[in-house]
Amino acid sequence: MDGAPDAFGSPYRLLSGAVVPRPIAWVSTRGDDADNLAPYSFSTVASVDPPVVVFAPVGRAPSLKDTPRNAISRGEFVVNVVTRDLVEAMNETAATVPSGVDEFDHAGIEKVEAVRVDAPRVADANVAFECTLYDSMEVGSSTLVLGEVVHAHVADEVLTDGKLDTRKLDAVGRLAGNEYATTDDRFELVRPD
Fold first, then answer.
1. C-alpha closest to that of 96 among 61, 74, 67
2. Strand partners, 47
3. Model confidence over 17-69: pLDDT tens digits?
């Protein structure tokens, strides 16, 4: 079958079902009334020099949800990496709650203060990137939020010889609908010269 993106149910269903697995940026911010924590599966690395990560929430100003609004207005946020042991807690933070509700407290997640930015991070996350706002832009019905990584937290148990070991990081990615995937099915393929 060929056709326009909406011929396959909807552009969202087509893209979210075909671009898989997607890393989950579990973004934490500080708001005026509460700390926010929410997962975004439209996310990835944008640059390594400088180190920049990106997440793309659906919505545009002035109707952005708390987390992207805080990230843009305050210019600081943390991207926490979701691992298998945290996936249930991450899912709790996907719930729609009123503005002013601390989503860490709502989901029963322990938080700690970041080192370089004014935002909390997930205490049990094996990897967390403290970010300052690099840029943001509206793209269609979404807003891209780019953050320059200014400090990283990596748990000792996911390091080998001082380097992140992806075999030890049981990261979770988003598929489509209610489906997720872990990174435990691995194989190697040598890139040609």
1. 67
2. 52
3. 888 899 999 999 999 999 999 999 999 999 999 999 999 998 888 888 999 99
Q: What is the pTM of this model?
A: 0.94
Cβ proximity of 178 and 89 under 8 Å: no
- Residue 97 CB: number of other CB atoms within 10 A? 16
Structure tokens at 57: 């929430």
Residue owning tokens 């599966």: 41
**CA-CA distance, 45 to 48, in Å (whole number)?**
8
The answer to whether 98 touches 66, Cβ cutoff 8 Å, is no
Task: List CB contacts of 106: < 8 A, sequence separation 6 or more.
Answer: 92, 93, 95, 97
* Upper half-sphere CA count for residue 80 (Cβ side, 13 Å): 31
The H helix count followed by the E strand count for the chain is 4, 14
Domains in the chain and their CATH numbers? 10-180 (2.30.110.10)
- Report the candidate in 83, 3, 74, 62 with the shortest Cα–Cα distance to residue 35: 74
